[in-house]
Amino acid sequence: MKNRKVLYYILLIFTLTQYSCSEDTVNLLPVGDTEATYFQNESQMDAGIMGIYQKLGFFYRFGGSQNGNTAPVWHLPSDDLTTPSTNALENFSGLNGSNWQVTLFYTYAYQLINRANYMLEKIEENADFAYKKQPELKNHHKGEALFLRAYMYLQLWNVFGTAPLVTTRITEISDGYLPNSEETELLDQAIVDLAEAAQLLPDSWSPEMKGRVTKNSARGLRGKCLVFRGSVNKTTEDFTKAISDFNAIQSISLTPKYSQNFDVNFENNLESLFEYQANSSPSDVNPFLDNDNFAVIGEIGAYYGYFSQKPSWIGNSYYTATASIKNAYEEGDFRRTYNMDLTSGVNLNVKKYIRNTAYATGWGGQDYELSVNNPRILRYADVLLLKAEAIVRSNANLSEAIGLINQIRERARNSGDEYSDVPADRNVNETERQKVLEWIFEERRLELAFEEGHRWWDLRRRHIAGEIDLKNLDFHSLDPNFRFEDYNVNFPLPEQEVVENPNMNQNEGY
Known about the structure:
Elements: H1 42-55, H2 72-75, E1 81-82, H3 88-91, H4 100-130, H5 136-160, H6 185-200, H7 215-233, H8 236-247, E2 272-275, E3 302-303, H9 305-308, E4 320-321, H10 323-328, H11 334-339, E5 370-371, E6 376-379, H12 380-393, H13 398-413, H14 433-448, H15 454-464, H16 495-500
Antiparallel strand pairs: 1-4, 2-6, 3-5
Helix pairs in contact: 1-4, 1-5, 4-5, 5-6, 6-7, 7-8, 7-12, 8-12, 12-13, 12-14, 13-14
């Protein structure tokens, strides 16, 4: 899929040319394609689908300043990362609806959802003539749009808990004033979308299309949504359905080495279920442009400069591993030394995605830590541990759940240049369910550290479920003003959205 990034230029199809209605222009035909004349064949429909994928890049862009990216939304709230800088997403103090990074996250999410809804409409409208040569692409495209929309619903629930549920294309301003979703409605819709996507998507794509989502992607993400919903609603049926989805995943396995999941040379590997396809600009990367600029394309890579203090002028707005996550690993666990630089006194210590990377070409690449190393959004290790959790929570076979944990630990032992005895297998004869559940969350932390917000999303859902109290957790923040309140499990909705939408209410506490 990387060699198809030139298709990002097709975002022009989402920009309609405006014409003034003077006597000289009112009867002129439009120059170039319009919505009415585009989407006539498989190639054009495929370009539209690529436009949905493209929006994922906005969540990984630098954005022109230390406050221009959305990474703090999922990285900073947990006890894995802290920052010498003052950031409301790390210390929760002063977090409100004016927070720019939260606003960006919300904006990008709904832009992606709108693109998905747009293409779902076009697929239905144009199916009779647009898929003459490759009729199977209709289902595949619909499955991709549903999957990507569902991923945004999951993320919106993780960040805000409640946000408008938009399932159709909005063409009238009056239709845009939707109310807050309630309880787990965002997850509910994601689960429905992913069930359909799993039926429509292909088992695999051709090599040049590798990286596009498949049936396995939908099964894995649906199972994750079910476990998340089940953990807060305490519904056993969700866990049994999740196990069924996880069991349906085929031809996927753990990579032999842990490091291969974060090495630029092993992207879209046998453990991968969903990655953002980071790449270099066809010309010269410009980290100050977004990638909806068409004359000079902006970033289509992934920014990791918050781990390496790049560019240097971001000052102390970098993220550093906490004492908590350093001490969570056993001495000798390969994941500990791969994920972090433990040299005494080093604050730039997170190395997971920048140890074996490659940079976008041009002046903005290495100096800005603009990488072409794909962020791994969903991988099989995550799925195995979610399956173990579902087994424990549904009162199924504990030894099976422990066996899944041990698969992860065995891979870790074999990931270094030499075999390690650490981490040792968990006792498969353990009979205390709560103990095994804690083992699972410990393993999720060790295995998934510094990735896609896994630690914060896990802490958040457990707090909502009443299993833990985050007010009593030591987040190991460097900020002495740190203070977590119950309402912080949901971030504030953008204030402008709340003010302009009479049907939307701000989250409690903000």
